[in-house]
Amino acid sequence: MRMSDYALVRYLERAKGINLEDVRAEIEQRIVAQAGATATGCWVDGIWFVIKNGVVVTAQTAPPHARIGTKRRVKKRRALP
After folding, report:
1. Residue of 28, 22, 21, 33 whose CA lies nearest to 54
2. Sheet of strand 55-60, all strands in order from the earlier edge strand to the far edge
3. Dist CA 58 CA 50 (whole Å)
4. pLDDT, tens digit, for every residue of 13-46?
5. Beta strand 55-60 pairing with 41-44
6. From CA 60, how far away is CA 46, in angstroms rounded?
7. How far is Cα 36 from Cα 49, in angstroms, rounded to an integer?
8. What share of residues in the chain are helix, strand, coil (percent, to 5)?
9. How deeply is 12 buried, as exposed, middle or buried, from its count of CB atoms within 10 A (0-12, 13-18, 19+)?
10. Mind spelling out the 3-state secondary structure of 32-60?
11. How far apart are CA 13 and CA 38, in angstroms?
């Protein structure tokens, strides 16, 4: 069995009493202070927040270009016979 993200969020709010709107506001405030309104990403507390069209879409431990296995590989050209 798996738990959806939605169910997990509701559990944290209702069973654990975590006010996620307060958490969201705190993170948003820190991102705006760190990155400004037009950035595409920024570091806050060791987490890289990815921003697209003014919306934080994910949080990672490393920015996309630094993640292992994401480098673009250049194909070698074969010599003509």
Report:
1. 28
2. 41-44, 47-52, 55-60
3. 5
4. 999 999 999 999 999 999 999 887 778 899 999 9
5. unpaired
6. 9
7. 12
8. 35, 20, 45
9. middle
10. HHHHCCCCCEEEECCEEEEEECCEEEEEE
11. 31
Residue with tokens 């595409």: 40
For residue 50, give both structure tokens: 């990815």
pTM over 0.85: no
Cβ neighbors of 56 (< 8 A, separation 6 or more) are 27, 28, 31, 49, 50
Amino acid at 68: I
CB 64 within 8 A of CB 70: yes
The residue count of the chain comes to: 81
Place of tokens 């202070």: 33
